[in-house]
Amino acid sequence: MGGVSIVAHPYDMFRSAIKPDILTTMPDAIEVINSASILHSVTWKRARTFAEEKQLPQTAGSDSHIPETIGKAFTTIECESKTIASVLDAIRNGATTPDGQAYSLGDRLRKLARRK
Fold it and tell me: In the predicted model, what is the mean pLDDT of residues 73-96?
């Protein structure tokens, strides 16, 4: 269908996620930075190690549910043009640079306060 498959927040200990080591088919990329991960120093390292061992492209996401956390983590994609096809090809080819930071305690408290 032309899309890309990216395993989101693998190895996260407090949210359900696909554990990449049990996959029988490899995804197109692995999210190695997720701002919402609580034990981010552990989960990010495990995800990055897996992606490097399998030579998979790496991405990042803020997993934002409130405006204040949008962009806490992001993926820079180097592509030839801004077309969907070019962006997807760049992800598949590993022309990505994940970056970002974990939510602060204040971010987490704001997110909890807005739950209903």
Answer: 97
